[in-house]
Specification:
By secondary structure, the chain is an alpha+beta fold. Helices cover 21% and strands 42% of the residues. It contains 6 helices and 13 strands.
Amino acid sequence: MKSILMPFFLCFSVIFYAQKTDIQYSYKATYNLEYQEDSTDQNSIKSETVVLYLGEGVSRYSSLGKAVKDSLTETLDPSNKSMAEFYRIRSITPETDFHYKIFKNHNDNELILAEKVFKDKLKYKQTLNLMNWEIEQETKEVLGYKVQKASGSFAGREYEAWFSPELPFSDGPYKFAGLPGLILEISDLQDHYHFTFSAFQELEKLVSKTLNLDDYKEVSQQDLDQVRNYYKRDPLTAMNNAGITIEWNDEAKAKRELSEAHKNRNNPIELQTK
């Protein structure tokens, strides 16, 4: 059995600079996400590493690819906007299908999802505790941590979760939160989305992230989803509309292939949105 002592007030600080917030995270949980991209094809399984940074009453979730890209971008010389530098960053960034980041603030009972979709910086806010959990008696172990079962529904899916009171964070991957311990494993009952805990670490050096979303336009979740789907369905037209021209040997063929690929991505984690 493992335990963790967490004098949060010693390892977390939030400093306000005008409209920017500097948040220091002291812990990191890592998960493997397996998901079925096409709801009609059981062989369309993909996987990614996702990370959850934790502080006192706050967290930051994203895919590993998104986290690495953000870290590299933060160190980029603002005067160097060359295509060579763009491709250099892209070449050392893990590929990801998930380009958003989710900030949870338990003190304000609020989460913010922010995403840059091509040239559009968009965000939306939601109430944090989106699920009504039913805690059950069943227990097991996950990587040495004793976990307890809970079940609940969210966005059109029924979920089974396993949380550990030994890690006293009322948090978890993606938007999942609200249990008396960190969620170490969670999956929907069809097993289309399955988060599996792989590591937890206290960071030797605090990770500081500046939360500055002032240049992100606040929209509804439906609006952001619509913009994302439009770009993924027809990125060539989106680029042309933005004034970016790319020479293609067969543009019509490229559009057909991209459209067909988009049709196979028909199984989002949220089947219903408010």
